[in-house]
Amino acid sequence: MPGIKGTAIAAAIAMLLGALVGAAGAWTWQAHRYDKDIATLQRDQAEKDRQQARADEAQLRQEREKRAGLERQLGELDARHYEELNNAKTENARLAAALAAGTRQLSIRARCTAPADGVPSTTSGAGLGDGGAATAILYGEDAADIQALVADADAIAAALRFFQGRERAIQTRDTSVDARR
């Protein structure tokens, strides 16, 4: 009987070895399938990453172009208003020189109003109290002071136009950026 026992042990060992070989084969096959799945997932993720990088690059390029356009627009605006300011300064300097030389006079139109009762008061000095028009001619320092005020007003108006134009350009850019989002 030892032969049957030995045969049974040999059969059990053979079955155990067969099961181990089958398990190893299944393990290898499953590992290969998982490796393929992981490789596919990695390839898909890499493609998604490349597409996202291209989209980000395109958006960045577009933002750079918009910024360059805005900077160019602001530069043109600055140059135009700087030229306006210089022209106003030149004209004001020319007028100031003409006033100082006496070749130009500064006059102010005025209207003297009549008193409500139509009768001039007795304490008033000489003047037109009949509502008639009058013209006052200013010379020298007084005219120069008024001309300097006008020059300052021109400079402030030019600066205001510049800043308003710049703000409009920035608002337009911000509005277009917000609309894309």
From TrEMBL:
It comes from the Bacteria. Signal peptide: none annotated. GO terms for molecular function: hydrolase activity. The keyword Hydrolase applies. Keywords: Hydrolase. Residues 45-67 are annotated as: Disordered. GO terms for biological process: viral release from host cell by cytolysis. Pfam families: Phage_lysis. Its EC number is 3.4.-.-. This is Probable bacteriophage-related signal peptide protein. It comes from Ralstonia nicotianae (strain ATCC BAA-1114 / GMI1000).
